[in-house]
Design brief:
The chain has two domains: 30-62 and 121-188 and 215-410, no CATH class; 66-112, no CATH class. Helix content is 64%, strand content 0%. Helix 4 (66-74) crosses helix 6 (104-114). The protein is mostly helical and 411 residues long. It has helices at residues 27-34, 37-45, 54-58, 66-74, 81-94, 104-114, 122-134, 136-151, 159-163, 166-169, 171-185, 196-218, 224-227, 233-253, 260-276, 288-299, 307-317, 319-322, 329-346, 349-354, 365-380, 383-405. Residues 169-363 form the ER-bound oxygenase mpaB/mpaB'/Rubber oxygenase catalytic domain. It holds the Pfam family MPAB_Lcp_cat. InterPro entries: Lcp-like, MPAB/Lcp_cat_dom.
């Protein structure tokens, strides 16, 4: 869409910064792209990776969602938090027009999010949602044991989590929030204006802005030169490539198949979610080839795991032991073991070692068994039944998480 401020605004301070693909010669970068999951992504997508377009994307490392930030300044920072939240919910559920007596920043935000982009294809949104649903528990395994924990290997990407003390909140609460967002954004018609997924996208966008402003105000040691702006647009792109490209690759590794239309649908779904979240359209890939090429450029500025990465990874692994959804300790230990097996199966060995994932016996047994059963299940169960069953499983897991995190113990 034109006219809504989504093109990168190059600030004068950015002119002093000249970002380089600083880790392009590092062993972790080369190993990932020449022999690890990066190589698999290239084979999976047919991507032609190179650093020739690096300069087109580098400025996004210092670019943020100015519209979202202005809304937070005008609404959340001028009144009590619960009052601001109620006000934003009113705008989301009732809409905002040019004639409404609201801050200009609010008008800008809702002018953009209420405007349907010309490229939006609702049939592809439907196909993407259906693949998310029919992939059932494999979707949740992929999000947790590949997308989320794999993201912890990128040390700079994790800095906002660390400085906002996400570790203190605990992995159970973080997982619950991520699951709540993902489930509600990936159902039928979820992204229609005023619908639940649309609401989650707007709220998440403003949470990002609130966190970014808090970091800039209170965390004086933030290293903008190295880490980029907090929750910058380029990091946001990488995160949402996790929900599309990495998610699809994980499903394939676990023995799932998907049609060309479903594959296109996943990218279209996350392109629209990214649009609602204020990610510049230049950064939203249309397909797996583009996504892999974009991801390659971004990884060249990211160092490997550090101590914080290991803490985040172990917090996630130990979530299974802390989570009271399963009643007995042996069940929780077994669930942790299964997640560890899937992590080793889905991620590179080098990444698992950096994150200090425990090495367990027979770690390929469960994933290989799952691959076999997935192929049988796909062949024997109708697509419609898979969608219905998968959606039911997602809603059950989400319900369990929301029930255990509504108490004070997990806030």
């Amino acid at each position: 869409m034109k006219g809504f401020g989504l093109k990168p605004v190059i600030l004068s301070s950015m002119e002093k910064r000249f970002l380089q693909p600083r880790f392009k010669d590092s062993s972790h970068f080369k190993n990932f792209w020449e022999s690890g999951n990066g190589k698999q992504l290239i084979e999976f997508s047919g991507a032609e990776v190179s650093l020739k377009d690096f300069g087109k994307f580098a400025s996004y490392y210092y670019h943020v969602d100015d519209i979202g930030d202005e809304v937070v300044k005008d609404v959340y920072l001028t009144k009590k938090f619960h009052e601001a939240s109620r006000e934003i919910e009113h705008y989301i559920r009732n809409g905002v027009s040019d004639n409404d007596n609201v801050p200009e920043s609010v008008k800008k935000l809702f002018s953009q999010t209420q405007a349907i982009p010309e490229w939006l294809d609702r049939n592809l949104l439907k196909s993407g949602a259906e693949l998310c649903m029919r992939s059932g528990l494999d979707a949740l395994i992929s999000l947790r044991d590949y997308c989320l924990i794999g993201g912890y290997d990128y040390a700079y990407l994790n800095k906002p989590l660390i400085v906002t003390e996400a570790l203190k909140k605990g992995a159970v609460k973080r997982l619950s929030e991520t699951l709540d967002f993902w489930v509600n954004a990936t159902r039928y018609n979820a992204l229609e204006i005023h619908a639940k997924g649309y609401e989650f996208a707007i709220k998440t966008r403003l949470i990002h802005s609130y966190a970014r402003l808090s970091i800039k105000k209170y965390y004086k040691d933030w290293d903008t030169e190295s880490w980029g702006e907090p929750i910058n647009s380029w990091d946001m792109m990488a995160t949402y490539i996790g929900f599309s490209l990495v998610f699809l690759h994980s499903l394939q590794k676990l023995g799932n198949t998907f049609s060309v239309e479903e594959e296109q649908g996943i990218f279209h779904l996350w392109k629209y979610i990214g649009y609602l979240l204020g990610i510049p359209e230049d950064l939203l890939p249309n397909d797996k080839k583009q996504a892999t090429e974009y991801f390659y450029l971004w990884t060249s500025v990211q160092p490997p795991s550090d101590e914080d990465s290991v803490l985040l990874a172990h917090s996630l692994l130990n979530e299974s032991l802390e989570n009271p959804i399963l009643k007995f300790k042996f069940q929780r230990r077994n669930l942790r073991y299964l997640h560890i097996c899937c992590t080793w199966f889905l991620l590179d060995d080098e990444v698992c070692k950096r994150l200090q994932i425990p090495d367990v016996s027979n770690k390929r047994g469960f994933p290989n068994t799952k691959r076999f059963f997935n192929k049988v299940y796909t062949a024997m169960v109708s697509r419609k039944a898979q969608i219905k069953s998968g959606n039911k499983k997602h809603l059950k897991v989400l319900k369990d998480y929301l029930e255990i995190t509504k108490g004070s113990n997990f806030h």
